[in-house]
Amino acid sequence: TSGGDAQGMNAAVRAVTRMGIYVGAKVFLIYEGYEGLVEGGDNIKQANWLSVSNIIQLGGTVIGSARCKAFTTRAGRLRAACNLVEHGITNLCVIGGDGSLTGADIFRSEWGGLLEELVQDGQISKEVAQENCRLNIVGLVGSIDNDFCGTDMTIGTDSALHRIMEVIDAITTTAQSHQRTFVLEVMGRHCGYLALVSGLASGADWLFIPESPPEDGWEDLMCERLGETRSRGSRLNIIIIAEGAIDRSGKPISSNYVKDLVVQRLGFDTRVTVLGHVQRGGTPSAFDRVLSSKMGMEAVMALLEATPDTPACVVSLSGNQSVRLPLMECVQVTKDVQKAMDEKRFEEAIQLRGRSFENNWNIYKLLAHQKPAQEKSPFSLAILNVGAPAAGMNAAVRSAVRIGICQGHTVYVVSDGFEGLSKGQIREVGWHDVAGWLGRGGSMLGTKRTLPKTCMEKIVENVRKFNIQGLLVIGGFEAYEGVLQLVEARGQYEELCIIMCVIPATISNNVPGTDFSLGSDTAVNAAMESCDRIKQSASGTKRRVFIVETMGGYCGYLSTVTGIAVGADAAYVYEDPFTIHDLKANVEHLTDKMKTDIQRGLVLRNEKCHEHYTTEFLYNLYSSEGKGIFDCRINVLGHLQQGGAPTPFDRNYGTKLGVKAVLWMSEKLQEVHRQGRVFANSGDSACVIGLRKKVVAFSPVTELKKVTDFEHRLPQEQWWLNLRLMLKMLANYQISLTEYISGKMEHV
């Protein structure tokens, strides 16, 4: 690990080490980054399976990282080559930022020459040089700034956003008490990603990022906006500034300059908070642990499959698939962004940062301040929450309401789901009614599981009474099932021939038509934090196995992903059927594990994974089989998985889905608007919006019906089942790698 540290590096070190041992390689850990490579000696140690036990939950990097001057010189690299050859190491996995990875690529290109030099100096023999003639390199990008082009997310970015959002949530409460303005400075010398996403996820009033400096005369505009927000009744202002913020002429904008400006012009009580290294610290988020584990496995495969002709590659995620990218292409584009910024080609800089960056920036600008609609539209939309509460629902409602208002629609919100729709609990909302909703957990509108078929007549009556032409339903499986029932009742009731859209929001992630549902990231993090604590207590008592029950209905997503994030020994789910033989194998596995230094076990069980093998049953089985070797405890996580403030991912995802759903509905309404009325009865007028691989897709509910298992409330095909291979492998189960799907080489 090299360069600045990032949360999740340990999960990557663990995955690379274990996967390496798994495929039969010798694995060495190099301590203190490139410095340890140059110094050699005790800095290079062979690792075993237990070397990386119990580190997945730690921030930073347990093998240390240092910025190394020596490695930037040829003499330093010569010593490094000598140390590697001494141990017979010809495959290097580097986890670090663009500097560290560029250094690795230079090292690789010089390798042949360095070995020749060592032969001439008599430090190694010709035979040794021949045996080690090729150096393979693979990179994993660890950087909290997310400043590396070509990769969707770098290791540590999500965790840094977690730290920033925790601080913003804490500051919001004190700012409200005192009616203060806060200027928050976040990291990002050359990249505004952290500032941008935290601005979007907190609904900040003003945002400074290096890629898009404010127009000249921004001081007047900013103060005018802040004043406006206050006069509308807001008690606070939040301004987020990236440490590398500049104006159009390239002059830095400091947080103190912004503070003084607000004080002088508006006289508001203003404070500056510089977040600094807090952002690099703390425990890695679930996303970073899973990301690092996936990338670590893929890195080992990339090294195994390397040939003299393959370029050094970086392992990355594209959507939820592992991919490989040529290292130097990524470095080149990353340099191009910097060059564009230096030459003040700011529009281009934003585009080079990639689609999601540009998307975030445009959505932030749309939602931050009310722009009067060009003209009043003839349409009315209603928004409701259905099913169990999920974090992020409020973020989706907020952005949907605001975009609807921008488009000139009349926007209604409905309390208590379909039941509220039938009882007429419907009210019109304005832009400021949803202020401050972004960071709130649960459902502010109130939600119920009632399905429309129990009260169809009354629903139709209210749709007619309020003249609703668009229905946006934010919720779980019931939301999807409910809209399907409304579509199937169109033959009976013409009033239901309107545009409908479902935003999947459930901690179970069991809605067809999307890879991720809103709220599942928050739930996985909540379950993971609990399991971390449980694991810690087991480490103290020794020889103890915890059986932890998670929610999710029949869907095993929550227990599988939590299992990977906490390094569980097993996760029982309905989709991956298990028999008494599997249970026996698991118990024996734990018995063996207790003979090592790791004297604790953690087994996750999804609540409905098996009709007869209940949590109680597992407890009894493990207790009697483990008698005298380990004891057992049960923990049912329960409703803590539904609670809590939404994670940065869910705030951002909810915001984006709300925007995209309403824009889609507006477009559809225009298409089916004839002679002053809306009539929509085609399949594609009622869709589920979701993320599939990398693309936001709209799937008609009538099409999704064919791929749904209604009895178990599940999609028939689920992408995350291939994660279970990784779960078992990292828990030291011998399984065949034939099912492993290697990432493809792609171009930036």
TrEMBL record:
<keyword id="KW-0021">Allosteric enzyme</keyword>
<comment type="function">
    <text>Catalyzes the phosphorylation of D-fructose 6-phosphate to fructose 1,6-bisphosphate by ATP, the first committing step of glycolysis. Negatively regulates the phagocyte oxidative burst in response to bacterial infection by controlling cellular NADPH biosynthesis and NADPH oxidase-derived reactive oxygen species. Upon macrophage activation, drives the metabolic switch toward glycolysis, thus preventing glucose turnover that produces NADPH via pentose phosphate pathway.</text>
</comment>
<feature type="domain" description="Phosphofructokinase">
    <location>
        <begin position="1"/>
        <end position="302"/>
    </location>
</feature>
<keyword id="KW-0963">Cytoplasm</keyword>
<dbReference type="GO" id="GO:0005524">
    <property type="term" value="F:ATP binding"/>
</dbReference>
<keyword id="KW-0808">Transferase</keyword>
<dbReference type="InterPro" id="IPR015912">
    <property type="entry name" value="Phosphofructokinase_CS"/>
</dbReference>
<dbReference type="GO" id="GO:0016208">
    <property type="term" value="F:AMP binding"/>
</dbReference>
<keyword id="KW-0479">Metal-binding</keyword>
<dbReference type="GO" id="GO:0070095">
    <property type="term" value="F:fructose-6-phosphate binding"/>
</dbReference>
<dbReference type="GO" id="GO:0006002">
    <property type="term" value="P:fructose 6-phosphate metabolic process"/>
</dbReference>
<dbReference type="GO" id="GO:0016020">
    <property type="term" value="C:membrane"/>
</dbReference>
<keyword id="KW-0067">ATP-binding</keyword>
<dbReference type="Pfam" id="PF00365">
    <property type="entry name" value="PFK"/>
</dbReference>
<keyword id="KW-0547">Nucleotide-binding</keyword>
<feature type="domain" description="Phosphofructokinase">
    <location>
        <begin position="381"/>
        <end position="664"/>
    </location>
</feature>
<dbReference type="GO" id="GO:0061621">
    <property type="term" value="P:canonical glycolysis"/>
</dbReference>
<keyword id="KW-0460">Magnesium</keyword>
<dbReference type="GO" id="GO:0048029">
    <property type="term" value="F:monosaccharide binding"/>
</dbReference>
<keyword id="KW-0007">Acetylation</keyword>
<dbReference type="GO" id="GO:0005945">
    <property type="term" value="C:6-phosphofructokinase complex"/>
</dbReference>
<keyword id="KW-0324">Glycolysis</keyword>
<dbReference type="GO" id="GO:0046872">
    <property type="term" value="F:metal ion binding"/>
</dbReference>
<dbReference type="GO" id="GO:0003872">
    <property type="term" value="F:6-phosphofructokinase activity"/>
</dbReference>
<protein>
    <recommendedName>
        <fullName>6-phosphofructokinase type B</fullName>
    </recommendedName>
</protein>
<dbReference type="InterPro" id="IPR009161">
    <property type="entry name" value="6-Pfructokinase_euk"/>
</dbReference>
<dbReference type="InterPro" id="IPR041914">
    <property type="entry name" value="PFK_vert-type"/>
</dbReference>
<keyword id="KW-0418">Kinase</keyword>
<keyword id="KW-0325">Glycoprotein</keyword>
<dbReference type="GO" id="GO:0042802">
    <property type="term" value="F:identical protein binding"/>
</dbReference>
<keyword id="KW-0597">Phosphoprotein</keyword>
<dbReference type="GO" id="GO:0030388">
    <property type="term" value="P:fructose 1,6-bisphosphate metabolic process"/>
</dbReference>
<dbReference type="InterPro" id="IPR000023">
    <property type="entry name" value="Phosphofructokinase_dom"/>
</dbReference>
<dbReference type="InterPro" id="IPR022953">
    <property type="entry name" value="ATP_PFK"/>
</dbReference>
<comment type="pathway">
    <text>Carbohydrate degradation; glycolysis; D-glyceraldehyde 3-phosphate and glycerone phosphate from D-glucose: step 3/4.</text>
</comment>
<dbReference type="InterPro" id="IPR035966">
    <property type="entry name" value="PKF_sf"/>
</dbReference>
